[in-house]
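Note on ligand handling. Small-molecule inputs were canonicalized before submission; formal charges were left as drawn, and no protonation-state enumeration was performed. Where a ligand contained multiple stereocentres, the stereochemistry in the source SMILES was retained. For flavin-adenine dinucleotide, this procedure yielded the string shown in the input block below.
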Amino acid sequence: MNTPVNNLFNELKKFLKDDQVTMNETQLKQHSKDESYHKASSPDIVVFPDSAEEVSAIVKLADAHNTPIIPFGLGTSLEGHVIPYDRGITIDFSLMNKVLEVREKDFLVKVQPGVTRSQLNKELKKYGLFFSVDPGADATLGGMAATNASGTTSVKYGVMRDQVRDLEVVLADGEIIHTGNLAQKSSSGYNLNSLYVGSEGTLGCITELTLRVYGVPEHVVAARASFQTIDDAVEAVVSILQAGVPIARVELVDEASIEQVNQYNETNYKVKPTLFLEFHGNEAGLNHDVEFTKEIVSDHGCKEIHFEEDNAARNKLWDARHNLAYAFIHGSPGKKQMVTDVCVPISELAGAIEHARKKVDELGLDGGILGHVGDGNYHVLLMIDTSDPEEMERADQFNEYIVEYALQRGGTCTGEHGVGVGKMKYQQREHGHALQVMEKIKLALDPKEILNPHKLVHKKRRIL
Ligand SMILES: Cc1cc2nc3c(=O)[nH]c(=O)nc-3n(C[C@H](O)[C@H](O)[C@H](O)COP(=O)(O)OP(=O)(O)OC[C@H]3O[C@@H](n4cnc5c(N)ncnc54)[C@H](O)[C@@H]3O)c2cc1C
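Structure output:
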């Protein structure tokens, strides 16, 4: 049939191979959702380019047809980022999955956007190097850059934005640019790296990334410490940071979450507010840091701290932490996960978590709290029945309470997951007039609003 979508499909087939472009229902469905509770909506077409030139040709065609483009990594985002509410073409980057160059002496690596973080770390291990950012899902580096992802190690190594030296980006008109260079520092021009990191596919498609990597630390010690109250655990973290202990990871898991961890991983951890910690360095320095940490946590009422130096035991500990979201999903069949993501100044963290726990209980919701407490970012993992409008309403109300609490204290509505569609309603409140500046940037770089419409800033296009 001669419909506009069929015409577009035929045009795409002129320069893409048969298996690089599809309107297959299963594929459309797979690309209609992310890992969140947001309502699914299918694209018209899914494409699998394998070079920047192909991405550029696809975007040029979409521009000519005024058709939306939705960049897609692995679809693990949590705020509806990849859902094509206006249909259009989803660009799946899974064929662009090569580690292109490891520049050992510069501590840099050049990758295609579809490389996942675990794939990269497997490759880097051969060189005694590692990539630090570790979101709970095994996401792609393109998706991680586009959401400014972070994870358990950001307290020491920083977030995705701190790792990006250069990006190759296909703009809305199909032009290909580089946003940075290989130099360690630069005062040249506007900082386009920072603009594109966190832009959620709304300003361009990332087709190559040059990223910082680090030497694998000589010695690593992990620990699990349980406390009487969340407040004690958070105050212990503040004291550890104030004492200048160079901690590499520090994660808080509350009692409800420890119960899920125990069930899912068949562990037998004490059901108390718990800190998972990790120290990186040389053996002599670490011995000192560990002793100091023991003293600090004991001053905050910690009665049990358990250290792991062996590689397998450490991996088991961190797998338990990383699997937490899946543990909740596994423990609540039929329910969907809503994950809150506020970040507050560290001095406000204990109060914020206490407020969140009180509100979860008051609203009769089911969920646990975990936090990247070293940088003031915490999540409430709510398990909700999305077919129950009353429960959805309570969950939304809860999200609003804690976002408002964070904003009143100088925090942000999203520490790491991004805006997508879910956090758009807080943007004006958080950014004020700066939001209009962001909208101007969006319109300057994407005047037809074909790039991931209805996400992050502007809402001109009509939701079908
Ligand atoms: C169990 C679980 C745990 C998680 N834990 C964390 C966590 O600890 N920290 C954290 O930060 N996040 C976390 N997340 C969220 C998610 O993993 C991150 O947002 C991740 O960065 C998304 O990567 P992705 O490859 O799946 O991207 P997708 O979900 O496919 O896309 C995300 C966004 O990036 C855009 N995008 C993707 N590829 C490109 C590209 N090449 N060019 C331009 N734009 C692109 C998309 O359009 C979309 O807006 C978690 C998610 C789950 C399910």
